[in-house]
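Exercise: predict the structure of this protein bound to cytidine-5'-triphosphate.
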Amino acid sequence: MNSLANKNILLGVTGGIAAYKSAEIVRSLKKAGSSVRVVMTKSAEEFITPLTLQALSGNKVSSELLDPESELGMGHIELAKWADAILIAPATANTLAKLASGRGDDLLSSISLAFEGPISLAPAMNQAMWKDSRTEENIKKLINSKFQIYGPGSGEQACGDVGLGRMLEPDEIISSFSLLFEEGLLMNKSILISAGPTQEPIDPVRYITNKSSGKMGYSLAQASLEAGAKVTLISGPVNIEAPEGVHLVKIKTAEEMHEAVMHHIRNSDVFISSAAVADYKPESFSKEKIKKSNKDLDISIPMTENKDILKSAGEMENKPYLVGFAAETNDLIKNAKLKLSKKKLDLIVANDISNTEIGFDSDENEVTLINNEIELFIEKGPKKRVASKIIQYISEQLTS
Ligand code: CTP
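Solution:
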């Protein structure tokens, strides 16, 4: 099934060197059966001519907010009503800033304000501009609003710099974008996801925890929602907001997470255990703050084992499709396979945490999906993109 067939797609092109790739995006959208209308900013016209995009899309390219001819036909309100989805590729730092602050001083930003559906952005800019704290703030605002962000990728840039900021390749953009319409993939499915760290208290002010940021689990929740699933997210303490539409259950300890998972798993088709659950907790909890002045104090903390939540799920009679994560510093594949069989899982996501650029607490990840049939490597990329690929694989398994 081609999810882009018969869809009205408005492609926004803004002024960056990657604008030449928008011609390929128009071609792919058309090939997939979409109707395409292109809106360009003034600076985009410096990089690629409207005529090229007009010829490829088969429609007049618009760029003027106050174009008398345009207002008679497809003005910004009409274009916003016409589109099923908007894709802006490339999206410059300036465009991100405009959209984040809700400005509408040109045709594309006005349409984006008037449009009520999903807007997808493929950022493209110099690596220093991408790293800038203001861009970071803008991205956070956009993600928490109606925007999906694809990429950017890393590598050598047109200006000679190396780093994050390159626009993703057109085929990568199209494959993420088409997920927006693949509502059938996880439609009517309930997905349970655990995310983040747990906190194991020692006394009222101290606890044992780990470096998990929850980003991978939250990205999986977002990708599941986008695929049409009903999502319950059981989360340890993290600093990110849950995507709108998920049922969020906040817990602190491994024991609370165990209880919450066991409660919700009964109604779930899939359980993805991405949480970094503490394997051990202090044997006892001191109600009073442990004082330094207590000279008799034995400063070692006796520990006791927590229940393995995923293993408990694997032992259930009518268990859902079970997905575990294997966070490993060595023998990645071998250890992941051991966990797959020991915990009776359907799939394990092997995650090399010895590489500090990926995995724990970072924005990017690189994983291998393993079960008895496959070893599927998902190359390094933003956690959202990796999450979409994991969800795509799981949904294929559920329907096959
Ligand atoms: N897990 C769990 N409950 C625990 C520990 C882990 O549900 N008490 C889950 C994690 O969410 C993950 C999988 O089990 O999906 C593997 O976790 P990991 O920490 O990699 O492995 P452990 O089983 O804890 O084994 P080890 O620490 O020895 O590597």
